[in-house]
Write a structure and sequence with these properties.
This protein has 281 residues and is an alpha+beta fold. The chain has 9 helices and 10 strands. Helix 4 runs antiparallel to helix 6 and helix 4 runs antiparallel to helix 9.
Length: 281
Amino acid sequence: MDCADVVEHEEMEFKAQCKEPNAEPIPGHRLLQLLGRGGFGEVWKCAAPGGLYKAIKFVHNASATVADELKAVQLVKAIRHPFLLFVESVEILDGELVIVMELADCSLHDVLTCYRAAGNAGIPRPQVLGFVRDAAEALDLMNFQHGLQHLDVKPRNLFVAGNQVKVADFGLVSSLSGKRGEGIPLSAVSPLYAAPEIFHGAISRDSDQYSLAIVFQELLTGALPFCGTNVRQLLLQHTTQEPDLNALAACDRPVVARALAKNPKNRYGSCAEFVRALTAS
């Protein structure tokens, strides 16, 4: 092993140590518990100065991944809203992107899992309406005041903190100013929830509304409107097939169907308008 290999090996060992409980990758921020791990990184609960608890997300040091997520987080980190998970700091350490965030209680995926484990099809409708109402307010703020689309709205990225839902995980946030989505690889999106235009390499002002409609159906019924098992199947379903809304009550079907229109111009004028239509149905 030459000197370069020794240095690289030591750096890898140092990074691995930083991902162990009680390590402090950022001074004063002690890792306590691994909360989740995915293809692009991992999230830990940590003890922060002042006796506070935070979440730290580490984005793996693939240069393109780090650059893309850093660009996305920079777009949204200055936005303040009670239904957006607060981003405290963003920095690059040893080639990894490290994001310190507000710590939530659980995700809506966790809530749904608990209800289904108890024998329910989904979450009671009044609760689901409250959840999507909070998310809609935050998504509309990003959309109409800042010209941004989240592009990864799904139960795992919607978090419960106290009695509120907060939109989180801003790694795909994109500006509407370019109107195109060529920079968003299909491998990065969540194809179960992605709007048809995303598969065509574009984004629209109503892409997040489409995803929120799928979230509503899944939380309420436990069933998805498109159930392909791979990206190709889901691409075809989202872009060419009608959604399966049979799990929904008859009064909700036309509302969700409009939010899931293939043409973004045929959807509601905002996420809040979609939620108001659900409330009135």
